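Suppose a colleague, Dr. K., hands you the sequence of a protein chain of 352 amino acids and asks what its three-dimensional shape might be. Before reaching for any lab equipment, you can write down a predicted structure in C-alpha cell form. Begin with the sequence itself:
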Amino acid sequence: MIDRPDLPIEGMTFVVSGAGGYIGCRLVDELLRRGAKVRAFDRYFFGVANLVDANNAFADQLTIIKRDIRDAVPEDFEGADAVLDLAALSNDPSGDLEPELTWSINLEGRCHFARMAKAAGVPRYVMSSTCSIYGAADKGLSTEETAANPVSIYAKSNYQAETEILALTDRSFTACALRNATVFGLSRRMRFDLVVNLMTLSAFEKGQITIMGGGKQWRPLVHVSDVAEGLIRLAIAKRDTISAKIFNIGVGNYQVQTIAAIVREVLPFQIQLQFAPDDPDRRNYRVDFSRLANEVGFEPRIGIEEGVREVYNALKMGETENGLHCSTVGWYRHLLQAKALLSEIELDGRLF
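The predicted structure, expressed as C-alpha cells, is then:
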C-alpha cells in the first residue's frame, strides 16, 4: 500500500452514510485510525460485524446508527463537522431490480439526508457519486463539464441527486460530489461484481477470465482506498475550492480486454482468456481526472496490479471468499425475495 501523510482530522466528527458498504468499511477504518469520531449510518444489509468487530480498539470513537437514510432527523447530525454520503443501492444492474426503490433511496433518500444535515448546521457535505453518469459517452475524455448521458436507473438517480444536493450550497452549507470510477481492491464487505475483482476471482477459481462485450469498451478505474482518501480530502478542503463542484476520481482508463491482460500478467499461474461478444452493459466511456489533482491536490496512485495482488493474496490465505453477499445485485435479489416471503411479518425497522 502506498504511504501518504495523514490528514489533520483528529477530533473531527463525521457522519458516514452507507458505512457498512464496500467503500464505507474502508473509509470508516481510515477515519477512526486517524483519530476522528464516526457516526456510521446504514441499514447494514450486509451486516454490522464488518465495522464493529474490526474496530474494537476504536469503540469510543464509533457510533453505530442502524437506520434508513429516509428516516434521518436533524438530531442525527448535531455537532458533526462533515457528512460523507455513500448511501445508495449501488451499481447499474442492481438499480434495475426495483426501479422505484432505487429512485426512492438514491434520489429522495439522499436529498432528504442532505436537507437534514443542513438543518442541523453541518458545514460540509460530500456526496459519493459515479462516473457511470457519463454512460455511453462520445469519443474523448469526459470532464466534469461534459453533458451527462446516463444509461441506467442507478446513474440517472445519482445524477439527479447530485444536481439537487449541490443546489443546497449556500454560505453556511458547502456541498460537493465525487464521481467514482469503477472501484477495485480489497474490503471487508467484499464485492466480486466489479470488473477487476471479478476477473481476479474468476482466475483464482477457474483459471480463466471471460471478457464480455468483445473487450473493446472503456472503463475508468480507481482503488477503494483512493476513493476513501478522496472523500476525506474533499471534507477538509478549502470551501472555495470545492463549493458546489463535481470531481472525477480515477487512476486511469482501460479497455476491458486490457484489464484482463493485466490480471493474467500479475497472477502467478496460467490463465485462459475467453471472449463473449454479448453484454447488456452499454457503458463505454473514458474520464478526465485532472480537476481533483489540480484543484484539490490529490491524485490516486494505487494501480490495477496492486489491487489484483491484494485480492488474490486474500483469496489464497482464506481472508476473503466469494459468496452471495459479495454480489450486490445477487444479495439485493435475495433480500427482495425474503421481503416477499415475509411481507406479512413485522420487520425490524424499514427495509424497503
